[in-house]
Amino acid sequence: MNLPQFHVKNPTIKRYYLAIAIVIIIGLTFAGLKIMSKKNQDKIYYPDGIIAYQGDLKDGDLSVIEDWDGIISNSIPEGFGKKYYIYKTLWYEGNWVNGKRQGNGKSYYPNGQVEYEGEWFNNQWHGLGKTYKEDGTLYLEGNWDSNVLNGTGQSYYPNGNLEYDGTWINGIWQGIGKGYWIDGKLGYEGEIVSGLPHGKGTAYYQNGIIAYDGQWKEGKKTGYGKLYDDSGFNYYDGNLVDSKMHGMGKYTFPSTDEYQRESYNGNFLNEVFDGQGQLIWKNGSQYDGSWLEGKRQGQGAFIWPDRSKYIGEWVEDMMAGQGQLYSADGYLAYEGSFKGGYKSGSGILYGPAGQILYKGKWNNDVYNSYGELYAENGTKLYKGYWLRGYYEGEGTLYTEDGSLLYEGRFRDGIYHGGGREYWPKGILKYEGTFEKGLYHDQGKYFNENGQLVYEGQWAEGLKQGIGKFIWEDGKWYEGDWAEDQNTGNGKLFFANGVIEYEGAWLTGLYQDEGSLYREDGTIIYKGSFDKGLYHGIGQLYDEGGLLIYEGQWQNGEMLPQSEAGTVNSD
């Protein structure tokens, strides 16, 4: 502080003024301390010394007021102030009355984002205000009463677009309002009860086209109304119950109908055709007759889009009883018995020229029991027994050129049991046992030239067990097989019958202990193998049978003598 300068020659007067200056300085110092003391009194602290509140205060017992976490203080907020989380971020800022949030204020999430801003009463949202989500996006706004919306208000999607705009009661949509799609476009407008359309209302697609216009009940279309597709096409006029077509009405199928139906005129029951009605397709095909629970039932005539037709009886939407089926070209395609919509019993299938394609027994639209199958050119494709449309039991199968393909037993349409399979030119391919269409148990396999390739055991189409395999160059292998590969113990022979290798195998390669020979029968190597290579302890011999090296091998290479091995220098 800069004090005024006095020039006084009398020493007594000097001492007088000096005393006055000291008094002034002391007074100012006490005033400053008082001000600092008052500022400290504007704060409330958590027990660990962190600030809990800063702002206006008045006398009162804070421990009995809610939302103060049991903090003990003889002062309570009154007026404007800020409350903090124990981890120091802002919890609330605004007006307080008797230690409670009241008036205008903002509450915050722990991450610092605003939770609510607006009017408060008795620690609750009350009056006009807005709520936000933790990421800062607006959630609700409008008139609040005890933390819930009452009156007019709006709700928002996470992307910020309006979700609902209208009246609320106890936080629920009620009255007249508008609901919106997530992209902000109008989805519904009209009467609402308990958050659901009820009364007169109109629903919209996201493209803004009317989806439904009519009466509602508890969120469901009920009463007279009109349904539209998303292009604005009115596809139904009539009565609805629980959002389903029910009663008399006209249904016009949308242009996207996969069956190309045009319209149905008649009675509905729970969304399906029931009673008398006529169904017309866009291409002119139609059914005229009786319906029951959405199915054709009783007498009726049906013409398919391709102009093929059926004349006869219907049961459960299926052809049943005696009938005739005609092709689009008008020729008789089938004559005989029907049951459950399928050809069942005795019947004949015809081709365009009147030729027989199948003659025999049927069951559920498929061949059953004994029958003969023919190609369109008249060539016989199969003769024998059937079960549920599959070859079953004894039968003979031919190619379309008449060549023999298989003869033997079938199960479920595939080879099963004893049989013979042939190459396309009729040369024997396999003779033995089949299981589920695969070679199994004992069998012989031949190449297209008729040469035997393998003879032995099989499992699920793979060589498995004991067997002999012969290569085209005359070499052969006898021994164990697993999953179509030499695995286990076995011998490999040169074409002249001399053993090339005998010992253990793994997936077609020498493995573990074995001996390797030259074509003249002299030994090359005896010892351990790994993946077809010398590996481990083994002996190498020259063409004269003299031991060259005895010791350790690694991946087909001798280890140095110093490590483990002896080389015969002779």
Largest sheet: 44 strands, antiparallel
Judging by the overall fold, what is the CATH architecture of the domain at 137-252? Single Sheet
User: Which shape, going by the Cα principal axes?
Assistant: flat
For this structure, the CATH topology of the domain at 137-252 is Histone H3 K4-specific methyltransferase SET7/9 N-terminal domain
Kindly state the mean pLDDT as a whole number? 89
Please state the structural category: mainly beta
Could you walk me through the main structural features you see in this protein, from its secondary elements to its overall organization?
This protein is mainly beta and 570 residues long. 6% of the residues lie in helices and 63% in strands. It is built from 2 helices and 44 strands. The chain has a 44-stranded antiparallel β-sheet that branches. A hairpin with a 5-residue loop joins strand 39 (509-517) and strand 40 (523-530). Among the domains are: 1-40; 41-134, Histone H3 K4-specific methyltransferase SET7/9 N-terminal domain (Single Sheet); 137-252, Histone H3 K4-specific methyltransferase SET7/9 N-terminal domain (Single Sheet), CATH 2.20.110.10; 471-570, Histone H3 K4-specific methyltransferase SET7/9 N-terminal domain (Single Sheet). The termini are far apart. Mean pLDDT is 89; it is low at 1-19 and 21-41.
Concise summary:
The chain is mainly beta. It contains two helices and 44 strands. Among the domains are: 1-40; 41-134, Single Sheet (Histone H3 K4-specific methyltransferase SET7/9 N-terminal domain), CATH 2.20.110; 137-252, Histone H3 K4-specific methyltransferase SET7/9 N-terminal domain, CATH 2.20.110.10; 471-570, Histone H3 K4-specific methyltransferase SET7/9 N-terminal domain, CATH 2.20.110.
